[in-house]
């Protein structure tokens, strides 16, 4: 079967418009707010030393970066868990039993969340390694594993490994196409909020920066990031329905 990405995206957009009264509050609480909190309360990581700097300066950067990770790892962990719960809740709303309410979806998401987090970790480790080494292998992993979440929610396999195996089966011979989708999503998440994040950085360098302006700018960046994440999630749901 040839994937019509335009038709899938169109159906996902139609879902977003039809169900915006449900999706907007859920995405606002579980996707937007954690992202905004990170932007407001977690400072930017230390800047790496410029080329040609001494080993001592490189070691200072490594130590500063280690402290930054140590200080804010819990923030990222909590944010990731909250966002994962929101994502599983949305998938459970569409891929669960007919006429399920948002409350039903959230209750189901709470049960599935540990397995979903484990499956996500099992996918992200090789994906990050691939992205850091040659980029393309990491994008391919993300594309092939795009249906892990929908499979886990819709079919409730016995383990995270079984969910990954089924997702890989569904994406067989479609890996490069889905890698392209993953690439577009990653690029969009980086490019769309970038101007606002640049403004945020400039405002933080100003001693008399207005905190309300910073909050508004960060809220705009978080909203764009949330929109991309929600769009990709709905795309994955429609894709699963077509391939399952």
User: Helical stretch count?
Assistant: 10
Provide the helix percentage.
over 70%
- Based on Cα principal axes, name the global outline: globular
Distance between the termini: 12 Å
The biggest beta sheet, please?
none
What is the string of helix and strand elements?
Answer: HHHHHHHHHH
Q: What's the count of strands?
A: 0
Structural class: mainly alpha
Low-confidence stretches: none
Estimate the strand proportion. under 5%
- What is the radius of gyration computed over CA atoms, rounded to a whole number of angstroms? 19 Å
Mean pLDDT: 90
Please explain how this structure is put together.
This protein is mostly helical and 244 residues long. It contains 10 helices and no strands. Helix 1 crosses helix 10 and helix 9 runs antiparallel to helix 10. The longest helix is centred in the first third of the chain and has 41 residues. The model has no long low-confidence stretch (mean pLDDT 90).
């Amino acid at each position: 079967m040839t994937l019509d990405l335009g038709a899938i995206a169109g159906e996902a957009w139609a879902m977003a418009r039809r169900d915006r009264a449900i999706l907007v509050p859920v995405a606002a609480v579980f996707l937007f707010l954690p992202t905004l909190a990170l932007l407001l309360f977690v400072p930017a990581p230390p800047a790496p030393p410029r080329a040609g700097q001494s080993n001592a300066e490189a070691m200072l950067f490594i130590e500063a970066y280690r402290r930054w990770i140590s200080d804010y790892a819990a923030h990222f962990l909590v944010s990731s868990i909250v966002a994962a719960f929101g994502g599983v809740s949305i998938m459970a709303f569409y891929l669960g039993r007919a006429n399920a309410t948002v409350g039903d979806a959230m209750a189901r998401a709470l049960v599935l969340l540990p397995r979903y987090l484990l499956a996500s970790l099992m996918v992200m480790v090789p994906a990050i390694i691939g992205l850091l080494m040659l980029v393309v292998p990491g994008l391919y992993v993300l594309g092939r594993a795009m249906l892990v979440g929908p499979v886990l929610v819709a079919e409730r396999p016995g383990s995270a490994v079984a969910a990954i195996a089924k997702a890989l089966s569904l994406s067989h011979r479609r890996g490069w196409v889905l890698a392209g989708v993953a690439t577009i999503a990653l690029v969009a998440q980086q490019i769309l909020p970038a101007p606002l994040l640049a403004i945020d950085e400039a405002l933080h360098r100003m001693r008399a920066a207005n905190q309300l302006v910073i909050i508004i700018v960060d809220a705009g960046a978080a909203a764009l990031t949330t929109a991309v994440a929600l769009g990709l999630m709905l795309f994955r749901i429609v894709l699963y329905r077509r391939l399952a």
